[in-house]
Structure formats: C-alpha cells, structure tokens
C-alpha cells in the first residue's frame, strides 16, 4: 500500500490503440495488485483490469494540452495508452506503477496474496496433480539401463538441477560427481527423455568447462555410460545448440529480436511492407525456425535412427530446454495432450532449472537476464499446431493462457529459478498451482479436431520447415487488438457442435431406453406416465450466435470524419483469460468485462466475442432472429 | 489447320512423370489436340490429363540422350516429364509449345468438349441481366433497363442491357458514353436495399488537359442522388496517376463540375504491375532456399500482399460510404474493367449476404466480371511462368478471389462456399473445358456463339454432387454486413493457391475432413433423435392406458 501515491484518478482517457480517435473516458484506480480502469458510461460497466506483475514497462510522455500520456506495456503484449488530465497525477501514477510492477522481494509477488476460494486441503492437492516420477515410469523408468540417482538429493552436486535425476545404470556416484565438476554449474549429463520402443534417449547437460583441449575422464565415462545405455547403437550425437554449431542465438539476441518484432506489432496502421520488412529484420521467425530445426534433428535421431543424443548449450537451461522439449513434442504423442504438455513444461523447464524469475523479470533485477526463451518454445508448439491441426489435444488458447501465467506470478509454478529456490520459498505450502486450475477448466482448452485415434496423433511428427510454413502468431503478439482476429471462430463453433453432439448422444440413449420400456409395457399393458422431453439446442441456436456484427475499421485514412454513426470502440481486451473472472475478481489478469453480470463468461464461450451489442447491425440480427 | 500437323510425335513409351508430393509414374505419353496424357496402364495409378491451354511455359533439359521437359502450368503446378530419346523429347516439346499457344479461339477445347454429365440447368441462361433487373425492380422503381447498347455500338465492352436511372434517356446515355473511357458510361452495379444507396461504375471521364465537361454525364450521375444528398466518387488511382491520365485524354471529375460529389483517390496498381507482382510472388514461393530472411524479403518485394490490402481497403471504403455514410458511390479507375470491378464486386461481398452463397457468387462473377467486360481472354492468356513479355496479362481476377478468400478466412461461417470453390473458379478462369471465361466481353462471346457451342462452367457446378463438394459445412446464413480487418497481421498468404504444389496438404485436408465429420455426425444424431422422439410420441398416443377418456 505504501507504494500507491494516488489510488484514484478521474477523467482518464483510455485510447484505442488501432484507432486513437476512439477512446473511453473513465476512472483509473490503483490497488495493491491491479490497475483498474472503469469506464464512465451509464448503463455499462466496462472494466479493464491489469495485474501489476504483468506490467513490463510504464512510460510517461510529455504533457500536452489534452493531458499527459501514460503508456503501459504488459508482458502478455497488452498495450494500454492512458491520457491523464493533470501532469502531477500522471507523475504519481507513473511512480506508483513503476514500483508496484517491480517487486523487490519474492514475498511481494501476487501468488502469495492470491487467495481464491479454495480450502487448504484442496490447495495441497493442487500440487499433487502433476507427478514427474509418474512421467518417468510412463517412459518405462527405472529399468535395467537407467536408474534414479540420489546423488543430487540435497542439491549438493548441482544446485540448479532437480533432486531426482535419471542416469545410466552403470554411472557410479564418483563418475557423476567427477563429470559434474567438468560441467558449468555442475550440470552433468542426465536423462531428459527415454524412448521405450528403441532405448534411444535424450540427455541434457551444460557445456564442458575447460574448452576443447582439457579432458575429464569421468565425463568421458559418463558419456560412455549413456552410449552403452542404448544397446542397439554404437554411437551417439552430441548437439551443441550454440550459433557456432546448431545455430540458436543467445538470450540477448532473442530478447532484442522479440523487442523489434513487438515494435512492428505496435505500429499504427502499418503498410504491408512496413510489417513484412519489420518482421524480417526482427529475425524472430528465423529464430523460431532454428529452434524447431534443432528439435527435429534430435527427434529424428531418436525415432528414426534409434540414436541417443546429448544436448547442451552454455548453461543448459535455455536453448537446451527449448530443443529438448520441442523434440519431446515431436516424438511423443503424450506431450501433445493437455496433461502431457504440462508435464513437459514441468520436466524440461521448471525442474531442470530454467531461470523463470530472471528470464521473466518477476523481480526487479538485471534486465540483461530477461529473455523470451519460453515464449519461443510455446510458439514452436503453436507453429506445429498450425501444420498438424488434429495432432494436439489442446488449442492455442491453452498456450496463450500458460504464457500469461508464466508472467503473471498468480500461481507459484514459475516463481524462482530452480527447484531448490522454490522449496526455500515454500511455494507448495503457500501458493496455488496453475496446472490444476488449467485441468479444471480443460473444456476451454480442448481442440475439437483432436481424436486420440487419428493418424496425425500417432508417433513422430515430421513438420516442414520451409520458411513459408512459419506464420506470424497474431493470436499471441496482437492478442489484444481485437479487430485483427477472425470475427468467427471455427474452433468455437466446432466445440459448440461437439457439446451438442454429446447431449444428443445422451438423448438418443434415453429415448431408446424409454421406447424399449414403453414397448415392453404396452406388451404387458402396464401404465406409464408420459414423459416430456427437453428440446435439444439445435444448430439454429448456434447459428444465432454466429450471426454476428462487427464494425468497419479505419479504411479511409481519416477521409471520412463526420460519420453519423461512428462505430463504437470494441472493448479491447475481452477474449481471453476471461475464465479467470468467474473464479474471483482477484484472479482477473486483464479483462474489460462485467464480472457481476457474467458477461465475460458468455463472451468467452461464444464466437461472438466482438463488441457487437451496441452495433446497429446486431439489432438487425435480433429482428431477423425474432 | 489440323492438330495433327502440330503433333510430330503423338506417343512415347517409357516416360517418367514427377509431380510434387506424389510418387513418380512411368508410362506412355500421348498428345492429343487438347490434352497431354500420361497413362501408366496399370490399375489404381492415377493418369495425368493436362489441358494444353493450362500450360504456361515449358523448359527442356538434356542429360545424355535422356531429355526432360519441365511443364509449368497456369494453375502454378510444375511437373517434370523424363522422355527417353532426344528427338522424341524435342518433338514433344515443340508440339506442346504450339498447342498451348493457339491463337484462334475457335480451336480452343471448349468448342470440342461435350459434357459427360447431365445438364440440369444451362448456366448460360442462369444469370441474365434481365433476371437480375427483376430482383432490382422488386426493391425500387427508380431504375430502368436500357437497350441503348443492344448492338454493342455505344460501349463494346458492356452487355446489351444495362440498368440506369429511370429518368435518364438513351440519348443522354449515348452522349455520356462519348465522355467515358471505352464508352463505359456510369451504370448501376449494386443497389443497397437497406438504405436505397447505390454503387455505380464507369470508365474514367475524358476530360483531357483542357478540362472538357459533359452535361449529360453530370446529369446521369446526379440523377442517382437523393435530394440534398452527396455522393462519393472513388477513383482507384492515386491523384498523380489520375492527373497524368489527362495528358492521354483521360482524367477525373473536377469539383467544379460535380459539386455534389466528393472524390477519393486510392492506389490500386495497374495491370502490368500486378502481373509482375504475381510472377515475383510465385518465384518466391518456389524458391528452394531455406532462409527465412530470403523468403520474407522476397514475399515483401513481390508486393502481392500490398495489392491485396489496397484492393480490400478500397472495397471496404466503398461499402462504408454506402452502408455507414448513407451515400451513393461511383467507382472508376482508367478503363473501368479491372480495379473498378475488384472494388465493386468485393464491396458486394461485404454488403450483400446473397453474394456469399454459391449461386450468388456465380451471379456476382457473371455481373461484375464477365458481363461487365473484364477482358478475361487477355488477362488470363498467361499466368506466373510466362517467359514472354507480358502484353495485357494481369491477375486482376485472381486478386479479387484472393481478397474473397481473406474475407472468408475472417468470417469462416458466413460463406456458403468453401475455399475449394474459389480455387476452382481460379483454375477455370485460366484454362477450362467450359466456355464461360473465353472472350473479353459479352459482344465477343456472342460473336463466337459461346452459349450455343460450349458448355457453361455453371452448368457443371450447379449439380447436386458438385454443390455438395463445394459447400462450406460451417455455413450459417449471416444477414449482416461483414467488415474485414485490413491490418497486415490479418491478411495471409493464400496457401491454397500459392503453396498448393509446394507443400503437402495432407494434414490440413485431414483436419477439414475431421471438421466435416464432426458436423455430419451431429446432423445425423439430430435426425435420429427427432425420429425417435416422433416414435415415442406415437407409442404414447397408441398406449390405451395413457389415453384420457
């Protein structure tokens, strides 16, 4: 509270990013956890909530006659442009937000104050939802080739590794410890994925320490042990992902690339050339392709050649995590399911010490440590989903929700830099887990085209990495620019159809039963009271949802200014994460919905997520439907 | 001329066909007057039947005595034929070159093609101007159908019947025609039922450098305005290009002479620039390099997506003037046969739900492209692989289809047809067994007796089995105006055309089938549940114990 210099400012304007002529006037509130903008308009309660932990930067611009601009960039790529009437107020809000968005201690993070209406027992169970040991046993481990090693039980060998590690059965503790001394941060070669079918494995480590001249006997023995754990192969690959070898750039290049790419996304009415040139010069898609290419190499080595692979970069927690997890998604259909992707992130990212706190800038810290490494992994998965629409159990909304919560600090999962830190912070004892939240809301994240028995679902995915197969992920990077997205969602439509189909199947069964019953009764002349049936929701009902209206954009370049019916600004942030608002207002990351009336819920499930309620065309729709 | 003269070697055995993403086929190559046929003479192997008119260009390569012909098609496919024997290969190549560049329209395949299907409805009569006018008459009596062009003498590129304001007589039309490029005086393109506003199209006014004016032209277009209302003239050219046109006798409407109209200039490029853009785009898509930078920079340099954005934006502007500003619009560029038609036809897709149905779309293509005198023969003579210097080729129509696809992607449930229909129309515009896209105007088509001598594409499309194949399973009639996004992030490369032969579409096709299956299964269940419900109701009424006395 002591950081809030000004809790409330009135007559603030929130500008529409795409068409700045459209703006909303309202009151800006600063709370301990959120910035809230409430539109002044009789009859509507339009609210925009922004979590402080999602704020990436706050920029105050020079005051003008109309007020003082405050530009807020969020880690979920929302950009808010407020105009505050008085400079002093703007100054106070600016300073408050800067402090609030850059906590200095872990205890200030939102996850420690986020208290949804869940009792303690249930909260504890949330953390038991995922069990990495279960995933290793799913792989068939331990077995005669790989064993669970207690060597890192107290994080003594490597403080950034998890306690439970799988190593070759023949690797003795002295070999492991010796090898760890030869590797940066003690991150010795250990198992990431094991293929039960052909015994090939993906192992990971950090770089060897003493350049290429020095040798380490134990490290060589360790690699030898890994090679011998794959009895059908007499060699293995060592994949160094760095630019010199595989060609994935370092965290600084990736950070700058994303910044450039986001700059392009933010351009106001860019030409096609501005956009394509900017996208090219950002290099973003090139980097995504490099990560995917490396993942494909490893996946093919394991699945097609039956050869084990050791992957490393420098520290083995950025590029290594990307490449191992992409390879896993390609290799194993399990990681393409809802639960599987959660397990994968928990395994290759969280447990193996991807430095979430540093990379996501959870606490005020070294800006050079920040880098969108996990974003790139999520995008690789999305690119694969675009090529294999039936292969994934989850949809893009799932990836986007995970992305948001990696940065939001609402759940304890991504706090800290490694397992040891997380234990010290008592996250399991004091916070909630994202995974069980996602699991409970899985209906929102299911890809309707997924079928476990579909051919695309089986085995190794072989994506094309021709440059034209990579698309710009508008759904993430321009997420809050509602006008840019398709106005009708095929996925939502199909989801509704499938829900209806399920109801029909139930009705069918119940009708059959009743008919059999009636026929039997009539045979036996037993009285039975007539049953009335609910009318099933038909496709027409769905169709009405789809008969949506939208508003024209600025096609004129300002030529037509005296429009008699200026389209209303669409509410800039309603599509995603609205599910949160059902739980508790506290959990609201960012939406502009009326939490009391439950409008948010409707807009989340209906393809009609555009602000159409006040549009003349939608009135027409209502008439034609009546 | 006999085709036989052009076919030196009608048949070669042991030819190997390479096609992208398909196994190679070895078989016998046959050349007929209109087709290149490769048959393996084995069961269950697909034969290749390629229309000579679909061939854009060929390349020859020799390794020893094995020759290869690379055949590049107008539908953008590239195939390779390995032909044993140098002489055979040369003969085949020269025959293909001759047969694919026949000058005489009357030798084209549509004049020889006989339908192997039952014609339920003759497509040549499905979309006559008089029928379209009947629809208009049911909405308004402010327009009449003029026969002023019945012998094509006033405007050679217009149909014999055009809709014009009721109180403007034919003499006025004749005079206005002399003031417009190609005699293309302003005619009705679209009537917006919701507010009675209209969209008209024309050729550029021939003001020349000394600012000629034409009272009849002014009278004609002012007759379309309601009292006290202003209209918009959308000139598809930039003001600079329009100024330059004056030197060649063209020009634009000055404020002084058209005080009730407000002129807006847009920047849709001319035909030759669009053709260059298509060639560059296809070249970029076929680039085998794996460099992301190279791909993005080539895509950008082709400017194709820029054209898509500009055309779509202009169409949205026209639609916005009509629907939101409540104003009538006149659209023209230079000739009024390319960018003008892109704008007027796309605006109708946006405004008029009827144009988003399969039949409505056919009607739109008929009215706004074929009857409106888009010179298909000239524009589609060559596609992206042409080696010769482009003469009058231009992908104006393909760009229109691309824009429709963009809107379809943004409103996937608002169109009765699927992407496949757009691809089909694209293919037939460039090479076809049907006569629909032959000729440059109604006058030319009448002279060639196309309706009598050839089959219409629509005759083939409008049969239950084809319609079913082309129907979008997601379609739910949407009576609203649909406003697409024109942000660069929202406009995608039309993979279904430009990457069609460059990547396997298996997984995307499977996804489409899965979607069809989900919807079909739902319908099936609905039917079952309904029938059981009836059965149940019947059982209950038959039940004597349930009858109330």
- Major sheet: arrangement of strands of chain B: 4-3-2-1-7-6-5
Main sheet of chain A, how many strands, which sense, barrel? Answer: 7 strands, antiparallel
Q: What would you call the structural class of chain A?
A: alpha+beta
In what order do the strands lie side by side in the largest sheet of chain A? 4-3-2-1-7-6-5
Low-confidence stretches of chain B: none
Mean pLDDT figure of chain A: 85
Number of strands of chain B: 14
Helix content of chain B: 40-55%
Count of DSSP helices of chain A? 22
Oligomer: heterodimer
Throw out a few tags for this protein.
heterodimer; A: about 625 residues; alpha+beta; 7-stranded antiparallel sheet; 4-stranded mixed sheet; about 40% helix; globular; disordered C terminus; B: about 550 residues; PH-domain like; 3 domains; 5-stranded mixed sheet; 20 helices; cell membrane (chain B); Myotubularin-related protein 9 (chain B)
Briefly summarize what is shown.
The complex is a heterodimer of chains A (626) and B (549). Chain A has 626 residues and is an alpha+beta fold.
Write structural notes for this entry.
The complex is a heterodimer of chains A (626) and B (549). Chain A has helices spanning 87-100, 120-128, 132-138, 173-181, 217-228, 251-266, 272-282, 284-305, 319-331, 338-351, 356-359, 373-387, 396-408, 419-425, 427-430, 434-440, 474-477, 490-524, 539-546, 579-583, 599-605, 616-625; strands at 8-15, 23-30, 34-39, 47-51, 55-60, 68-74, 79-84, 146-149, 165-168, 190-194, 201-205, 237-240, 309-312. Chain A has 626 residues and is α+β, with helices and mostly antiparallel strands. In chain A, the strands form three sheets. Chain A has a seven-stranded antiparallel β-sheet with strand order 4-3-2-1-7-6-5, with helices on one face. Chain A has a four-stranded mixed β-sheet with strand order 10-11-13-12, with helices on one face. Chain A has a two-stranded antiparallel sheet with strand order 8-9. In chain A, helix 4 packs across helix 5 (217-228) and helix 9 (319-331) packs parallel to helix 12. Chain A is globular and about 75 Å long. Residues 526-548 and 561-626 of chain A have low confidence and may be disordered. Chain B is of the alpha+beta class and 549 residues long. Chain B folds into three domains: 3-102, PH-domain like, CATH 2.30.29.30; 129-503, no CATH class; 508-536. Chain B contains 20 helices and 14 strands. A seven-stranded antiparallel β-sheet of chain B has the order 4-3-2-1-7-6-5, covered by helices on one side. In chain B, strands 10-11-14-12-13 form a five-stranded mixed β-sheet, with helices on one face. A two-stranded antiparallel ribbon of chain B has the order 8-9. Chain B is globular and about 75 Å long. Chains A and B meet through helix 7, helix 8, helix 18, helix 19 and helix 22 of A and helix 8, helix 9 and helix 20 of B.
């Amino acid at each position: 509270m002591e950081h809030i210099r000004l809790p409330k400012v009135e007559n603030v304007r929130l500008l529409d990013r795409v068409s700045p002529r459209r703006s909303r006037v309202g009151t800006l509130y600063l709370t301990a956890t959120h910035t809230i903008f409430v539109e002044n308009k009789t009859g509507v309660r339009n609210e925009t909530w922004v979590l402080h932990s999602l704020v990436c930067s706050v920029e105050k611009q020079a005051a003008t006659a109309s007020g003082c601009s405050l530009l807020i960039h969020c880690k979920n790529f929302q950009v808010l442009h407020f105009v505050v009437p008085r400079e002093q107020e703007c100054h106070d809000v600016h300073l408050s937000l800067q402090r609030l968005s850059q906590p200095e201690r872990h205890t200030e993070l939102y996850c420690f104050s986020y208290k949804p209406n869940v009792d303690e027992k249930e909260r504890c169970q949330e953390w038991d939802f995922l069990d990495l040991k279960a995933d290793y046993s799913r792989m068939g481990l331990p077995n005669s080739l790989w064993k669970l090693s207690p060597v890192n039980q107290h994080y003594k060998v490597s403080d950034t590794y998890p306690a439970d590690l799988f190593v070759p059965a023949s690797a003795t503790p002295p070999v492991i410890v010796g090898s760890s001394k030869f590797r940066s941060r003690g991150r010795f070669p250990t198992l990431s994925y094991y293929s039960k079918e052909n015994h090939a494995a993906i192992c990971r480590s950090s770089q060897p320490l003493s350049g290429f001249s020095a040798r380490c006997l134990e490290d060589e023995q360790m690699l030898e042990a890994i090679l011998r754990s794959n009895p059908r192969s007499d060699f293995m690959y060592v994949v160094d992902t760095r630019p010199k070898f595989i060609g994935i750039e370092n965290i600084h290049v990736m950070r700058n690339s994303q910044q450039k790419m986001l700059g392009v996304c933010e351009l106001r009415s860019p030409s096609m050339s501005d956009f394509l040139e900017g996208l090219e010069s950002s290099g973003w898609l090139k980097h995504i392709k490099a990560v995917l290419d490396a993942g494909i190499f490893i996946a093919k080595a394991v699945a097609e050649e039956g050869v084990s692979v050791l992957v490393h970069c420098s520290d083995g927690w950025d590029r290594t995590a990307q490449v191992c997890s992409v390879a896993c998604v390609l290799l194993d259909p399990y990681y393409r399911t809802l639960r599987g992707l959660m397990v994968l992130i928990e395994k290759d990212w969280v447990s193996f010490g991807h430095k979430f706190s540093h990379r996501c800038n959870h606490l005020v810290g070294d800006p050079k440590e920040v880098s969108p490494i996990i974003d790139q992994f999520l995008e690789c998965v999305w690119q694969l989903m675009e090529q294999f629409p039936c292969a994934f159990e989850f949809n893009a909304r799932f990836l986007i929700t995970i992305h948001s919560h990696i940065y939001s600090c609402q759940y304890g999962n991504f706090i800290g830099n490694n397992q040891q830190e997380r234990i010290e912070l008592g996250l399991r004892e004091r916070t909630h887990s994202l995974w069980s939240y996602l699991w409970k809301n899985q209906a929102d994240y299911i890809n309707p085209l997924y079928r476990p028995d579909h051919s695309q679902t089986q085995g190794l995915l072989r994506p094309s990495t021709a440059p034209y197969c990579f698309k710009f992920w508008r759904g993430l990077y321009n997420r809050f620019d509602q006008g840019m997205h398709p106005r009708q969602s095929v996925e939502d439509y199909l989801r509704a159809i499938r829900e209806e189909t399920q109801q029909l199947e139930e009705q069918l069964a119940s009708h059959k039963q009743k008919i059999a019953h009636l026929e039997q009764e009539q045979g036996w002349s037993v009285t039975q009271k007539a049953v009335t049936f609910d009318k099933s929701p038909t496709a027409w009902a769905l169709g009405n949802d789809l008969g949506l209206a939208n508003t024209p954009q600025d096609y004129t370049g300002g030529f037509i200014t005296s429009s008699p019916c200026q389209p209303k600004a669409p509410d800039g942030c309603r599509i995603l994460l609205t599910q949160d608002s059902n739980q508790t207002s506290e959990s609201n990351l960012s939406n502009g919905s009326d939490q009391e009336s439950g409008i948010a819920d409707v807009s989340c499930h209906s393809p009609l997520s555009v602000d159409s309620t006040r549009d003349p065309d939608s009135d027409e729709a209502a008439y034609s439907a009546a | 001329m006999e085709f036989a003269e052009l076919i030196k070697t009608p048949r070669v055995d042991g030819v190997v066909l390479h096609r992208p993403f398909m196994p190679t086929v070895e078989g016998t190559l046959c050349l007929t007057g209109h087709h290149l046929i490769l048959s393996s003479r084995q069961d269950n192997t697909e034969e290749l039947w390629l229309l000579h008119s679909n061939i854009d260009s060929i390349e020859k390569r020799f390794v020893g005595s094995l020759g290869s012909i690379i055949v590049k098609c107008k539908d953008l496919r590239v195939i390779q034929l390995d032909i044993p024997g140098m002489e055979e290969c040369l003969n085949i190549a020269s025959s293909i070159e001759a047969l694919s560049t026949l000058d005489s329209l009357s030798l084209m395949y549509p004049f020889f093609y006989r339908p192997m299907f039952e014609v339920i409805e003759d497509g040549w009569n499905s979309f006559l101007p008089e029928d379209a006018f009947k629809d208009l008459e049911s909405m308004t009596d402010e327009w009449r159908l003029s026969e002023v062009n019945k012998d094509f003498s006033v405007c050679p590129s217009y149909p014999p019947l055009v809709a014009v304001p009721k109180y403007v007589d034919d003499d006025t039309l004749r005079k206005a025609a002399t003031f417009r490029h190609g005699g293309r005086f302003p005619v009705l393109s679209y009537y917006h039922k919701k507010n009675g506003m209209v969209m008209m199209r024309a050729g550029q006014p021939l003001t020349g450098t000394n600012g000629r004016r034409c009272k009849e032209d002014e009278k004609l277009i002012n007759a379309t305005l309601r009292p006290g209302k202003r209209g918009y003239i959308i000139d598809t050219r930039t003001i600079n290009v329009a100024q330059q046109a004056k030197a060649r006798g063209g020009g634009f409407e000055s404020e002084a002479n058209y005080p009730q109209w407000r002129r807006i200039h847009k920047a849709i490029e001319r035909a030759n620039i669009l053709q260059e853009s298509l060639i560059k785009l296809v070249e970029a898509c076929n680039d085998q390099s794996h460099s992301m930078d190279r791909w993005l920079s080539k895509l950008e340099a082709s400017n194709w997506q820029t054209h898509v954005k500009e055309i779509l934006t202009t169409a949205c502007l026209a639609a916005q003037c009509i629907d939101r500003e409540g104003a009538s619009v006149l659209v023209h560029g230079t000739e009024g046969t390319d960018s003008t038609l892109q704008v007027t036809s796309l605006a109708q897709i946006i405004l008029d739900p009827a144009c988003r149905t399969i039949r409505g779309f056919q009607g739109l293509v008929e009215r706004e492209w074929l009857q409106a005198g888009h010179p298909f023969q000239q524009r589609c003579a060559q596609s992206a692989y042409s080696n010769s210097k482009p003469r009058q080729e231009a992908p104006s129509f393909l760009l229109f289809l691309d824009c429709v696809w963009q809107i379809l992607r943004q409103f996937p449930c608002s169109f009765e047809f699927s992407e496949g229909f757009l691809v089909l129309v694209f293919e037939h515009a460039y090479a076809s067994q049907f006569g629909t896209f032959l000729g440059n105007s109604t006058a030319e088509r009448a002279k060639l007796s196309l309706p009598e001598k050839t089959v219409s594409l629509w005759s083939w499309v409008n049969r239950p089995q084809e319609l079913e194949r082309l129907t979008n399973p997601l379609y739910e009639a949407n009576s609203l105006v649909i406003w697409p996004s024109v942000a660069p992030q929202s406009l995608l490369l039309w993979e279904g055309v430009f990457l069609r032969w460059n990547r396997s579409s298996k997984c995307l096709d499977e996804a489409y089938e899965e979607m069809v299956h989900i919807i079909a299964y739902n319908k099936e269940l609905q039917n079952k549940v309904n029938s059981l419900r009836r059965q149940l109701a019947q059982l209950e009424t038959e039940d004597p114990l349930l009858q109330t006395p």
